[in-house]
Amino acid sequence: MPDFIVTPFTFEDLAKVKAHGADSVLIGTPFFSVRCVHAFPVEELHAIKKECERLSLRMYVAVNRFFVEEELAALREHLHLLKEIDVDGIYYGDECVLLEAEHFGLKQKLIYNPDTLITNHSDVQYYLDEGIQMVTISKEITLQEMCEIGRLTDGECEVILHGRLNMMHSKRNLLSSYMSFIGKNEQVRDNYDLYLMEENRDEHMPIVEDETGTHVFTGFTLASFEEIQELLQSGIRHFRIDGMFHDIAYVLEALDLYHAILNKEKDAKEVFAAYAKKYEKDHVTHGFYYTKTSKVKEG
């Protein structure tokens, strides 16, 4: 059975996503999480866990910040809290989280999500054999390559199924620095309406500057209506729907459509065509499923 992982915006969204067929939620918190649709105060985590248990939802927490030396004490305190709450999973990208989690007996809760790094089954298997719970496959490889990883991997792996994809993160405040350089006083921090546009491309790439730095997202929105069956058949069963730049209604709609396709109530191609038309401004595409993003030297 598939595991649909979604990003709630409010506490009340937990019941909503469950009613629409979500199996897990990914919770962000201030400081420790990056690129989360909403940062829930750590004081609310106990209540969120209790509500998830009531609804039979798995509760994953994003600890995907990259930590410097002075921040390790705060990380340890946060991991202690997550152990006390008994969360179901902890997303991470910084290897120090793996080391610190071992000290708390949390290694089996970890989900390795390093964005672009996981592109073959050997890497996935290495981390799973180390004793962590799950690995997120890179979103920049093709559908064929993802499915091969799914078939060859003995253990749990996840793919980002739907939403804008993160393409770049810098700890520098690039937008503020640029505005300062050109002598303009513009509000760019935590502004989700900004985007980059290349001269020769008809798409916009959202760019966000927040307390963790600057993030650039794809100029398209990934929709996997036509690919989910093949991904599931390959052995991949964890699918994440990210609502960044949208709202909970957007997430619920996507959940409904994927369930309708899996239940054979709707045709995948027709769903994709209608969805791409409805969200025309989002440039809905198949992402990198059919396009190699690296060049191999011939000869």
From TrEMBL:
Q: Can you name the source organism?
A: Longicatena caecimuris
Q: Does the keyword Protease apply?
A: yes
Q: Name one GO biological process term.
A: proteolysis
Q: What is the lineage of its organism?
A: Bacteria, Bacillati, Bacillota, Erysipelotrichia, Erysipelotrichales
Provide an example Pfam family for this protein.
Peptidase_U32
* KW Hydrolase (keyword) present: yes
Q: Name one GO molecular function term.
A: peptidase activity
- Protein name per the record: Putative protease
Q: Which family does it belong to?
A: Belongs to the peptidase U32 family.
Q: Which UniProt keywords apply?
A: Hydrolase, Protease
